[in-house]
Structures are given as C-alpha cells and as structure tokens.
Amino acid sequence: MSVAAIQASKLGGYRRIDAEYYQPYLLRDELLIQQIKWPVVPLGELVKEGYRVVYENTFIADEPFDPEAHVKFLQAADILSDFPAIGLDSMGWVSRDDWIRYPKGRVKAGEILVEVKGKVEKVAMVPDDFPQEVLITGTLYKMLVNENKVSPQYVLIYLLSRFGRNFRDRVKTNTLISFVSKEELYSISIPVPSPDTQKQISSKYQKAYASYRASEALYAQAQALLAAELGLDKLDLSESLYSVRNVSEVRESGRADAEFFSQRYQRILALMRRSGQTVEDFANLMTRRFKPQIGQPFNYIEIGDVNGDGFLSNQTLLGEEAPSRAQWIMQAGDVITSTVRPIRCLSALVEQEQEGFVCSSGFAVLQPKDVEPELLLLYLRLPIVCEVLDLYTTASMYPAISTTDLMNIPITLPESKALQKNLVAKVYESRQAYHDAQRLLAEAKAEVERMLEGA
Q1: Degrees to nearest 5, angle at CA 124 with 121 and 125
Q2: 129, CA 20 to 30 Å: which among 78, 210, 341, 394?
Q3: What CATH number does residue 391 fall under?
Q4: pTM score, whole prediction
Q5: What domain range is 110 assigned to?
Q6: Selection from 97, 110, 109, 106 nearest residue 133 by Cα
Q7: Best CA proximity match to 304, nearest among 62, 73, 82
C-alpha cells in the first residue's frame, strides 16, 4: 500500500481529492518536472487549436459505402496499440452530410490525436499523406502544435513517454467511463528542451515512422501479388440489379437473402473455390482452454488488441480478473482471426514471445498445416476475403461468423512454390520492419525519459 499526504492548499488540478491523483510515483514525476532547468509550459500554451467533436452515433462501418456519399470515420480503435500510427484499412465510414455538419471534426495533417474517453491510452500524429476527407469521433481530441514554439514530434514522443503517459492517466476522471476534459489535457506540463535536443528526438521518431511505412509498403506488395495471382485484381466486382437462382441452390446454401446470391459475391466465391479446398484443409481449429488461477497473472488479448496491420498487443491480468471470454491459449505460429465483424480484417500472427498468451473467445485460433502462417494470414486479411467472411455473419447488432462457417470458407492459394516463398518473405520482411519501428520508437521515448531524469 502506498500513502501520500497532501495539504488542502496544494490540491491539484481542479481541486481533485481522489487518491489516484496523488499516487507517490505521480508526485515524484511532478516534482522532477518542476525541478528541471528547461522551460516547462502547459500543453495548452503550445497548441494552435483543438476541437473535440461530441458525437459518436454515426458509425456505419458495416454498411455499403459510396465515396460520393460517405467519408472516412476515425475512431480511437483505428490508432495502433503498439505504435502511434493510424490504420487506414480499419476505419469506418460516415455520411458526407456529417462531414458538412461537423467542420470542426475534420482531421488535418500534422495534428496530434489523443484518446480522451475510455482507456485514454492512444496517441498518434496525422501523417502528411493522410486522406483529406476524414471525420473524427468524440472519443479523440485533436490539436495542432505551434511549431514556432516546439517540435510537434517532440511533443508526441513526450506524451508517449513514461511522464506523458502517467500525466495523461492522472488527469482522467476515475468514473465508470474515464474521461479527460480539454482543460485537464491542456494543463499537462511539457518540458521544452533546446531546439537541437528537440531535433534529435524528432529525427528518431521520423526514422521509426519511416520503418513503419516500409512495413506497410512491403505488406501491400505481398497483398497485391497474391490478389493478382488469384485473379482478384481483374475480377468484375460490379453489382447487378437482380440475380436468378434455383430453389435447389437456396436449399443447399441454407440462405435466401439477395446479398448472398448477388452476382458480385457469386463471382468472388467461384474464384475462391477453384482449388476445391477450404480453410479447414490448411488449418486446425484449436481450443486449448484456459483456466485462470487466483493470484496468477496472465497475458490477455481481446479483439481491441489486434491492430490493423496484423499485430497483437496485450494486457496483463490476475486470474481473479479474467473475463469470462478469456478462453483460448495461443501458441507461437498460430493465426488468430476475429469472428466478430470480420469485415474489419482483424487477423494476426502469434509471435514467439506471445507463446502461452490467452485470447478472447471472439477469436478463432488456427494452427496452420501444409501452409506457412504468413501466407494464411495474408489470405485471411485480403479485403475481398474479409467481405466474404462478413457475408456469412449473422444479421444482428453483433455480427459474427460461426467457426463452422469460417472453417468452410473456400481458399485458393498460388500453386507456384516460388511465389509462395516470395509472398512469405515479403510478409516476414514487413513484420521485421514493423518491429524495427517499435524499437526506434522505444529508443526515442527512453531518450526523453533519460534526459528528463538527468536534467
């Protein structure tokens, strides 16, 4: 148990009296920042502007979209858990009417995004080549740093460092749903080092982000190669006004909805069925059941811990804290795929260091057989394959595909072993570049922390 005694005259923030605000480690960090010789400025004095958009109910990710009628919708879940980047493929869509109605919610290049509701963990910077028409959710706050006062990249790294993370966690309300107000966020103290020091930190971030983009490019190359080999790049994906089917086909499929029998999806399925094989031919569905033990910590992965690039983050829980959905034990080399909202392409490869981790029952855990896990992952994350997976979901507020239907999804892979080897190599190189990005980012954060502790 830790204890801190605070005088009433020194109550911080907006007269906060909750014990969490005065944890000893937070007070130590606060004292350290106060003693630094550099200028220390409230975050609010370093930003040009910032708007929080108070609306969240326009999310329509699972509906068909039309670029003329919809724009991209950015949520906190679209920011990667283990790297400050935004997953474009995972973003949903909102009506263009909302784009017109909420001009303050439009995202601009260079803005820093901070999660202010819920876990209050995500932070990222909008890249220069970000799509021009993107609307932001009310769970994120966006701000534009004044570059004449401080480097935006330095501010980003500081907010991601131990000090920034602790101070962000400190100012959130400890209620049922945590929340950070604009005033509390802007009250966070930012030490401002010399321009040369800021430049040094910014350079490390830029190298990390370059590695991340290299990872994206390599994966995109692999995805394009696979799609071209399968003929998906030349497939006619146009919709038809009608489709005529025999009653026997309806009975055989157990489906009678027009979407399933649309010519578009039937053309896709015909291509995927060319090999006559299904996911079950390439993977075993694993059900290694987890039994939590009181007092014993375990590493848990839920659906929100899968990022849009096929990587996993995790949280550490005690056995008594285990949610009922913490059911499956994973092994290195497994490929896990979300059975909930499969349109979001949330599949990932279990790394060696994640051996024995536990995942939610919302995942199907697949053990590849007669195929490299990187190739299976690549296939399951093809957007058009995810559309087919989504076609088999139940029509409800919580659309999910059954594991039976998942294992029966048709799968056709390249016959050329040389091409398979090339695809696996590109996915592997992509993942290595991603890990390099994580390493460089960690070095940048560590450097900031060392400088502050020694300043």
Answers
A1: 160
A2: 341
A3: 3.90.220.20
A4: 0.84
A5: 8-192
A6: 106
A7: 82
